[in-house]
Structure formats: C-alpha cells, structure tokens
Amino acid sequence: MWRDSHLEQADRHVAEAKQRIARQRELIATLELANYPIEPAVSMLAAMEKSLQAFEHHRRLLQERYAMPRGPQRQKRAATAVNIRAAE
Hints:
The protein has helices spanning 2-33, 39-67, 72-87. The protein is mostly helical and 88 residues long. It has one domain. α1 packs antiparallel against α2 (39-67). The two termini are 32 Å apart.
C-alpha cells in the first residue's frame, strides 16, 4: 500500500539522518584530536540536526494523516489539524 511505502521512506530518512549525524560527530572528535579546526564540521552537524528534525516532523505528519478515519469524520479531523498547525 502506498501509505506503508511513505511511512517506510520517512522512517528510512530518519534512520539515515541519524547515521550521518553519528558519523559527523565521530569526524568532529577525530578533527579535534588532530588539532584541526572543527567549526565547519560543527556547523555542518547543526544543519544535519535541523534536517533530522524536519524528517521527524514529516514522519509525524504522515502518521497523523494515516491514522485519520475515512469519510466525513476524516474531513473534520483534517480541518482541526490544519487549524492547530495554523495557530502554532
């Protein structure tokens, strides 16, 4: 089902981002031990962490969307979700 593939893809994006962040932290530690400048690597880490947050947010949105019932009840819940996001 396409729903499952979307959720699987979102899960994969989150897992891959976490792996890249772990590798980046290892790189920073290696650079630091070798007395190389770490500022560019730390800046990249911050960007990677922001991307992870975006991937996790997207996954939550998909989970909310697919958890909604079908029909008129779904439309009501979708409208509520939009109103809540607009208020944030």
